[in-house]
Design brief:
about 130 residues, 3-stranded mixed β-sheet, 5 strands
């Protein structure tokens, strides 16, 4: 974590240790680096990337998983970070499903989206969407 802090990173998304954002401590001292935890259940790669073992899941069912995870996070007032990779969700059918999911999310009062760097700068707020660089 020292190298991450020294490099000037605002956030990290590798620890998967919580449902909410938190500031990472190093030797019990605040680092200024915010953990924005991701979860494999709301990441497109485990469903459609290289680990599918030859059996592509039904895209409608994956969308239901993402929607259900968002709905629970919304009901609990929590953080929801959806990880989408351009080589997976960038395809036309996947983009249509992502758009449908985002319309659902934005239909809920008080929901908004931010880039992860903006979210890290506003640690107390709630992000709904994270786009991965691939």
């Amino acid at each position: 974590m020292k190298q991450v802090k020294d490099a000037g990173f605002l956030y990290d998304s590798s620890l998967m240790a919580s449902d909410d954002a938190y500031e990472i401590l190093l030797d019990k001292q605040p680092t200024g680096v915010v953990e924005l935890p991701i979860e494999r259940i709301v990441d497109d790669f485990p469903y459609f990337g290289g680990a599918t073992n030859g059996g592509m899941p039904n895209p409608d069912e994956v969308e239901k998983v993402f929607r259900s995870e968002f709905d629970v996070a919304y009901e609990e007032g929590g953080l929801f970070i959806l990880t989408m990779h351009p080589h997976i969700t960038g395809h036309p059918v996947a983009r249509r499903r992502a758009r449908k999911l985002i319309v659902h999310m934005k239909s809920k009062p008080g929901v908004w989206s931010r880039r992860t760097s903006d979210r890290a700068a506003r640690e107390g707020e709630c992000a709904i969407l994270k786009m991965a660089d691939g």
